[in-house]
Sequence to fold (406 residues):
Amino acid sequence: MLSSLPSPRATFSAVAAMLVFAPAFSHAQHAVRDLASVLAVQEEMVTFRALVKRFPDVFSGFPKEGVTIIAPNDFAFSKVGNWGHKTTEATEAALKYHVITTPINTGSIGKGNSMIAATTLTDPAFTNVTGGQQLILTKQPGGEVVLTSGFATRGTIVVEDIAFDGGIVQIVDSVMRVPETLESTARNAYTDLTAFLGALHRTHIADEILTAKDVTILAPRNAAFQQLAGVLSHTTPSDLRRILHYHIVPDLVLHSWELQNGSFLVSAEQSRTMEITRLGNYIFVNSAQFLQTDILLSNGLVQMVDNILSPDHTDARPDITATAQLPVLTPSGATATGTKAPIPFTSDLPCTSDCPETETFDAKAPRPTGAPASPPTPDSAPSRNSGLVGIGLGVCLAAGALVVGI
Ligand SMILES: *[C@@H]1O[C@H](CO)[C@@H](O)[C@H](O)[C@H]1NC(C)=O
Ligand SMILES: *[C@@H]1O[C@H](CO)[C@@H](O)[C@H](O)[C@H]1NC(C)=O
Fold:
């Protein structure tokens, strides 16, 4: 009986043990503090801390499994001067885009790999992607994790894997931008897609895309349209519609890393298919090469390709010996072709309020002179430029000058 009583020495040991473990215990407590406390000890987080306080609903009520908070630092906010001028709804939507619905540890992403992360932004006024608008996380070969959002806005995680009681915080050096429509993305960020956008307007497919959910769009760059300016000028409206529909994969958001060699995509043009070919780091759809991958849209994504696809050439495959692929449509006609040709279809872009009302396109107007009628050559220098070049007014004014009879 006596032996079951703790001896003074045993009691001392227990106290000592508590003292020894006390710091470790309180350290564990730190690891599960709430979001505000976790952010309070991080430097350069003044703006985000204030937003967390101002929008408590965005930053609470998380699922048991936890979320990932993408927390931009003050430097990130300093790069986007007008951020505070958004409406309350837009600010709330933008913040929801910074909350990933699952806890993601940077260690779980393999080097060189990309993954999609769904966010809590599900409001159809801001997104038409099933399951929540997405961010792309990519671990660079060097180990740093880069996030990609709308308008090619990227940020690097600068403080990784901070635990809080609702999951994980990742501090980034850029504010993530909610992906926008194809219209806005082509006009404001990826201006190399304006011919494609204009062609979609010409054929009224632009409206179909605007209301679609979960689409993948294979969008040829402007040079592909310039190269075929001659043949496109003789293409009937119904053939042009067929061609453009063949560039749309409905009901699937297909990220580049998910596209398997030899797999087929089903297009909106009578379900005609396209085949994916992977050769080293290059990806082809039929014989067109991917130039810019995974451009996020409010309702899916765009893969920018170097040539126009044709529903009548579904068997076109890349010539692996060539530095650039030839168009599947045969260039023809007297219209200027090549990179010096005016960019087709830009006159079909609806003008914004800045546009001069008087600019109307006269199909019988003489074509611009000075553009050589030399045979087209494949543009062997793919444009890598995707800079955030605002065009807006520029495109509308240029449309008057660049008009070509197509
Ligand atoms: C989502 O789709 C609806 C129509 O289905 C449309 O009215 C809305 O503008 C779309 N939202 C975005 C962000 O594109
Ligand atoms: C993809 O398939 C083609 C044709 O079968 C083959 O030549 C090529 O090596 C494959 N690429 C990869 C990355 O396996």
Remarks:
- Residues 261-262, 277-279 surround 2-acetamido-2-deoxy-beta-D-glucopyranose (ligand 2) (CB under 6 Å).
- Confidence is low (pLDDT under 50) at residues 1-29, 357-406.
- The radius of gyration is 27 Å.
